Each structure stands twice: as structure tokens, then as C-alpha cells.
Amino acid sequence: MKTLIGTWLCNASSVAGWPDRAPARRDRLARWRRRLARWSRLRHERQQLRHLSDAMLRDIGLTRDDVEREASRPFWDDDGTRW
Q1: CA distance 59 to 53
Q2: What are the respective helix, strand and coil percentages of the chain, to the nearest 5?
Q3: Average pLDDT of 36-61?
Q4: What percent of the chain is predicted at pLDDT more than 90?
Q5: Global pTM?
Q6: How far apart are CA 41 and CA 49, in angstroms?
Q7: How far is residue 62's CA from residue 56's CA, in Å, rounded to a whole number?
Q8: Is 12 exposed, middle or buried (0-12, 13-18, 19+ CB in 10 A)?
Q9: How many CB atoms are closer than 10 A to CB 67?
Q10: Which of 3, 6, 60, 76 has a CA between 20 and 30 Å from the CA of residue 37?
């Protein structure tokens, strides 16, 4: 009896004709996790630019104004990234 009930409960969504939405939810959750991780890295990198010396900025071809402009962008402002 336990086996019959357990089997029925495991297959309830397919028996009732309901689609299994778990894979889609996992995909959405994974995309959001990647997006949040990307935003966190962007925020950190933009703040780290502020700590570079003027000589270091010259070495990478940036000015202090470039850094301030980039560092002041909101974390979600991410050009060219596809989720």
C-alpha cells in the first residue's frame, strides 16, 4: 500500500496533467544567482578602481574622471552582459 501511494504522489503532476515546473524554476533561480554574483563583482571592481593611484590609472589608460564616472554607475548598469 505504501508503494502504491508513494508512486501516485511522485507521479501526481503527470497524472493530473500538470506540467512539471521545477526545471524552469531552477533555471530562473540559477540565472538570478548569476546575475546577483555579476552585480556584486561589478560593484566591487568599480569601487576598487577608486583606490588605484594616478600612475596606475595612467598605465591602464584611464583618468581619474573616467574612474569616478564608472564607479558612480549603479551596480545593475552592466553593458553587454547577457543573462
Answers
A1: 10
A2: 65, 0, 35
A3: 93
A4: 47
A5: 0.60
A6: 12
A7: 9
A8: exposed
A9: 19
A10: 60
Dist CA 63 CA 76 (whole Å): 23
How many other C-beta atoms can be found within 10 angstroms of the C-beta atom of residue 72? 10
> What single letter denotes the amino acid at residue 7?
T
**Tell me: the pLDDT tens digits for 2-40?**
565 555 555 555 555 566 777 888 899 999 999 999 999
Cell of 35: 546575475
Cell of 41: 563583482
- What's the rounded Cα separation, in Å, for the pair 9 and 3? 10
Longest dimension (CA), the chain: 76
